[in-house]
């Protein structure tokens, strides 16, 4: 968890370089002009905002996940899509706030 101001971030060039390298892959919405503009100045999204709360959650390690043998045919699923991870994390660790 972290807190920062809503001022334009000093590291926007790192984001622009990340986009130039194509690291957003199929997440084209990250490279839209609107997304870039809002990254340059978060106050454009919510002008009265003064602080931004940052939350992060670690995804489960797919190497240690055990498949459900009763589930039938299986395939590879991205760790972030393993059902309700973010929601359960929020309820478990930040509910008291």
Question: Can you give a write-up of this model?
Answer:
The chain is α+β, with helices and mostly antiparallel strands. The chain has three helices and two strands. A two-stranded antiparallel sheet has the order 1-2.
Architecture blueprint of SSEs:
Layout: E1 2-5, H1 12-20, H2 33-40, E2 51-54, H3 85-93
Count of helical regions: 3
Number of strands: 2
User: In one word, what is the shape?
Assistant: elongated
- From the helix content, strand content and strand pairing, which structural class follows? alpha+beta
Radius of gyration: 18 Å
Helix content: 25-40%
Strand content: 5-15%
Distance between the termini: 12 Å
Q: Largest beta sheet, briefly?
A: 2 strands, antiparallel
| N-to-C SSE string, H for helix and E for strand | EHHEH
Placed side by side, the strands forming the largest sheet appear as 1-2
Kindly report the average pLDDT value.
Answer: 80
Low-confidence stretches: none
Top keywords for this entry?
alpha+beta; 97 residues; 3 helices
In short:
The protein is an alpha+beta fold and 97 residues long.
């Amino acid at each position: 968890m972290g807190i920062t101001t809503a001022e334009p971030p000093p590291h926007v060039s790192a984001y622009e370089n990340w986009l130039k390298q194509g690291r957003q892959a199929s997440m084209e919405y990250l490279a839209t002009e609107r997304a870039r503009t809002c990254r340059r100045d978060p106050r454009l999204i919510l002008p009265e905002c003064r602080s931004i709360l940052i939350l992060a959650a670690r995804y489960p390690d797919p190497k240690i996940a055990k498949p459900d043998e009763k589930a039938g045919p299986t395939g590879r699923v991205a760790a972030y899509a393993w059902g309700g991870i973010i929601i359960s994390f929020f309820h478990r660790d930040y509910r008291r706030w």
